Amino acid sequence: MSHKQARFYESVLANFDRAAKHSGLPAGLLAQIRECNAVYQMRFPVKMGNSYEVVEAYRVQHSHHRLPTKGGIRFSHLVNQEEVMALASLMTYKCAIVDVPFGGAKGGVKVSPRKYSEDQLEKITRRYTTELIRKNFIGPGVDVPAPDYGTGPREMAWILDTYNQLKNGDIDGLACVTGKPVNHGGIAGRTEATGRGVYYGLRELLSYEDDMAAIGLTAGMKDKTIVIQGLGNVGSYTGTICQKEGGAKIVGISEMEGTIYSKDGIDVEKLIKFRKQTGSILGFPGTETLEVREDWVALECDILIPAALESQITADNADLVKAKIIGEAANGPVTDVAEDMLTAKGIIVVPDMFLNAGGVTVSYFEWLKNLSHMRFGRLEKRFDQNTYANIMDVIEKTTGKKVSNRDKSMIVRGADEVDLVRSGLEETMITAYKEIRDIKKRKKKLSTLREAAFLSALNKIASDYMQLGVFP
Ligand code: GLU
Q: Per CATH, the architecture of 1-35+187-380+415-472 is what?
């Protein structure tokens, strides 16, 4: 385990302790919330060609104060128990902050997906799922996995199929995993959800004129310069949506192969296509490549968005940051020590447990859809559409004026599933940010948004425990 990885769980615990001091909650209750409730460590053999490989994997359920527990599954050669424990803990706080009624969990399989064929990955995923079923670590009311780094809808479809084979007759079986392909019980808008949530979260933060003036920025996302680390699922959608809907200028992108920069802005959608064709972001027209890949941290910009892995901004490089805002799209990209250094310089760190909660929020919608056995919008879409059409008729009759067809089609429209999902996500991110901001304003002793976010979570989790009668 590398030094950076070892720091991740420590950093999560240190952040918890720092916020817990301000909570006024009893020590015993805080201790119960802090620890991981169940850690399942497994080793299983998978036949690869003529030989067997032993795969190391985990599922950690951090908190059972609400069920099911929820969180993604990571496929990476860097996976280790402490990392999964850190990620599971973050899921608990994340769910509480956005009022998603789940406990936190996370899974990890120590494999590098790049090294295996699709068939081999399917074997590994199915075997991992069987292990989870055997120990009752998966199920619609027990623990519901989702995608994370190195996994996506394809892996979720394998998990669902394995679950259904072994749990034949479970009428709610579809809800055993989220992030599924839409034609396999998934929900429209899940794939983009984390990135879209990052956009809504940042847009809300940027909308407060006074808060922005305090760090020398004008309000609003339009024309803000952004640098993104990671062009995976989260980074791609964050970049595209901030650019297209927020009018931001993406001036730098960092990936495994290097970092590119352009002060005039990079068209993220075109860059994603370019990378698919050439296998690299380097050489994208109109951009220059930095000599040192890691220098993305030091690029001139308003907002820096690490959207890859944990422990990227540490005590070693925090001093180099020139941005005014760091948006944690990844889980744990800024260590606790680095955050102290950034805060001392007046830089705002928008914490992961709020900013990247869009993924689990839409997972919650998907889970509800699966349990209701019906697509969102099916009942009301036509009713709404007919009502709006009637209203338009009345307006035209009373005013004697015709509304243009273009305006009419914009107004006379019932919501599709994706409209409702986006609306629910937008509402969730705005409400959560307002809660966190209010706590930060009220409690003068708090120095970071992360402490405020933790307090928002701790209050909700504590009240759940008290209702359970566990703590009087
Ligand atoms: N892996 C994502 C996260 O870290 C999503 C989890 C989920 O949808 O359950 O938040």
A: 3-Layer(aba) Sandwich (3.40)
